[in-house]
Amino acid sequence: MRRILVPVLALLVPVLAACQTAEGVRDSVTGLFGQSQPSVRIVPPVPAPASAATATSPAPAAEPAPAPAATEAAEPALRVDAVPAVGAPARARGRNAPRVALLLPLSGSNAGVGQALLDAATQAVFDLADDDFVMLVRDTAGTPQGAQLAAEWALEQQAQLVVGPLLGAEAQAIAPTLRAAGVPVLSFSNDRSIAAEGVYALGIAPQAAVARTIEFARGRGLERFAALVPANALGQAAEQALRASLAAQGGTLVRVERYEPGALDYAPAVRRLGQLAGPPPRLARGEAAPPPPELDFEAVLLPDFGDRLVQVVAQLHGHEIDPVRIKYLGIPLWEDARLFRESSLQGAWFAAPAPAARARFEQRYRDFFGRAPPRVATLAYDAVALAAILARGKGPEGADYSPAALTAAGGFAGVEGIFRLRPNGFVERGFAVLEIARDNPRVLSPAPEVFENPGN
Asked: Which pLDDT belongs to residue 310?
């Protein structure tokens, strides 16, 4: 049976230059060839809704390909990383023009992240949207109350799809209103507790990544596992994923120990993990070191990140629970240049989206905006690009953002690799397995390019 191949075009994009006014309105954005490009009006969270400017983009480079039959592994039905040529003339916007609301924290403590998400989303509009595509932007102030006001405003603006908000609490606040109106939500949160029919958690959740890491570790012959987890939602989710993965794939969970994230000393939890009676002995000059402690596990899952992970790992090394004897296993949040430089983490394994496509996105973002994007910016690009591509096939009723279209079995391919939305609101992704080595991750097992179970 013929496989459907979707072309990926060259990365030819306009250079974006923005002028920001005191009122928060991006008034002029000029393309590489001088055409008038989309302007985006940012609506503040409290005053009465203002009219939002429409967003215009070059003509599409290719029509979306149909999903292949479910009898074989399906190619991603649509790509969201293809980039069209620039310079097509604008067309008149019809009454059925696709309308997508982008809800972001453009004020408050997460305003910097919100601006980066807006930049990435705008880049996706320029790269991929038809000329009548409308992106409406509203500030949530990063609060559930602000998000609720923004959602009500989006409905008043007749938005057909909502992208955002950033935080799980915001998504939880808007879900009832938008589900009742039949408007789907592509939230940036990775909290699966918010996921439901029509409300999708696009954030890179640890559960599936842990499962991929354990599958790889079992394939490498590791059988006995332990976990040292923070006593928070992240640690709980990772622990549950570890237990489920070992139940499905075989292997033994020897022990799970927990520590308070705000603890000043992680040594007690480390000693419980290794069943050690006390701290390593202080040796006098010339005294021979005792043999390292016997350990009853071969790998330890460490689902934490940043400075706290570094402190935990330092305690593991200090108690001779180190990578020479034990394989460290992590989560996608380990994809952090600071951690790659840590000698104590060299050789550790973790699953995450394949880094190559994201590296290209990050370079383009730096070229356009003069700074590095936050990690979450890729989600804004992929979500808006997905909305733009689904809008290309609009009919008399406008763009098709129905559950059937959003949860296409073949999925989509974006900056973060292949992904597909599930009817329960979860997002399934294809992960690579990476090893920390010499300041950069090395791909040990590549990310899949298609989903092998298109019928699921």
From this structure: 96
